[in-house]
Amino acid sequence: MQTPLFNWLNARGTGLLLHPISLPGNQGIGVLDQSVARLFKGMLAAGLRYWQICPLGPTGFGDSPYQCFSSFAGNPYLIDLQPLVDAGLLSPADLIPLQSLPQGRIDYGMLYQVKWPLLFKAHAAWEKSGRSWRPYGDFEAFAKKRAHWLEPYAYFMSLKQEIGGDAWWNWPTEIRFLPAARKSKFWKKKSVRERASAFQFFQYLFFGQWAEVRDLARAADIQIIGDAPIFVAPDSADVWANPELFQVDSQTGKPTALAGVPPDYFSADGQLWGNPLYAWEKHTTNGFAWWIERIKANLELCDVLRIDHFRGFDTYWSIPAGQTTARRGEWLEGPGMAFFEAIKTALPDCRLIAEDLGDLAPSVIELREATGLPGMAILQFAFGGDATNLYLPHNLVANSVVYPGTHDNDTSLGWYRQSDAKTSDHVRRYLRISGENVGWDLIRAAYASVSALAIVSLQDFLSLGSEARLNTPGQAVDNWQWRYSDAQWQVFVDESAPYLHDLGELTGRI
Predict the structure, then answer these.
(1) What stretches in the chain show pLDDT beneath 70?
(2) Domain 13-374+452-457+469-506 homologous superfamily, CATH
(3) Are the beta carbons of 110 and 28 closer than 8 angstroms?
(4) Which among 94, 341, 408, 425 is annotated as catalytic?
(5) Active-site residue, from 308, 341, 366, 369
(6) What ranges do the domains of the chain cover?
(7) For 402, which of 17, 58, 166, 250 is 20 to 30 Å away at the CA?
(8) DSSP per residue over 186-213, as a string?
(9) CB contact at 8 A, 119 and 85
(10) What's residue 1's pLDDT?
(11) Active-site residue, 314 included
(12) Is 356 a residue of the active site?
């Protein structure tokens, strides 16, 4: 039998699923401020040693961290502006409109109108001061180290604003692709260059503040689990700067084939995601260099990385451009084991998790087992069928990560309340419970399972209903808005943390 490439998950543990945008505070969205230190302190009290987050990239329309303008850059919305006030780049009064935004939910429309002008104002003040404020190290060294993605991203964002926000394939021909754009009159325009400099400054702030988060995590012996979507957004610096790596038209830049999944039990039309597919032959030829750089960059931000849609590395559903549903398409071969062998060679110590959810072909399971990567199990998917369901606790394996639900699921309480009679009855009979507190029953089931890692969303720890759901797949708006309060966190620390610590000890997770 082949020795698995990766074999890192060899100890039991527990963790918290929480995207940083949901952190409490008075800046309209969760930011990288003192709330992170409070989070880690409470996690330690509960025995939680893993913090799982969603992708940290800059979001666009729909606010989804799975559709970012760059798979390398950080989200400027997460920047804590208080250090900019302390440095004199902003005034305390500048933050008042931001502090007036809702605290329980994120109003992205208002956040866009308020925060971006403050970021640009701070950059202008920083430039005027001669760039003397450098709390996160040397700016030029930061920019040079990341130049391969930072300059294209910064100019992509600046040109996008110059053109009025349109998608890059609708830009004038002279800037439709990066090589031509470098030679164009747009590249030399003062407004474009100044904005590009600002976008680089924002990345300096984000990476500097996230480095402080990493330091806090290391001091608390908490490991961060990051997230890398398999596909990138079509309107992104990734595709604009590297069109040869994607299935896009060499003249127009528009995708020639799109990502998604075919019709199944849950959707008669399948799911048309709209992301451009990879030109895998190009990646194979250059030794998967872009992917290696991407994973390396992600692992600067986290200790463990979840790879979304793992099955796409085995076979992927290719939908011809112009389709309005995912009904028409074909399964094509992905890069397979060669991809993971290249990653292992380049990054021998990297730790990855395979998001292997869905209807998996035997070849996908074989690939996962050959890589040795831990897969995922969702308890909400376990009920309503029979004893052979792979997600039922008795069918789990040690090399896996178990969740009551993820960011794409309803909260456990919301899910149970909306389940059909057959499913809810199965839950009660399998777990031998009344169903009165099913959220905590699923938490206990996850802790007691054989899966090495048990990860629980904060919403489930707080026993919240559907009102706290973070994301509903297929729904274009009203997602990624939920935030918790300091008061809710304090209740968790006072009432739930001691119980969870004891539960972790009982189940060998501490």
Answers:
(1) 1-2, 265-266
(2) Glycosidases (3.20.20.80)
(3) yes
(4) 408
(5) 308
(6) 13-374+452-457+469-506
(7) 58
(8) HHH-HHHHHHHHHHHHHHHHHHHHHHHH
(9) no
(10) 53
(11) no
(12) no
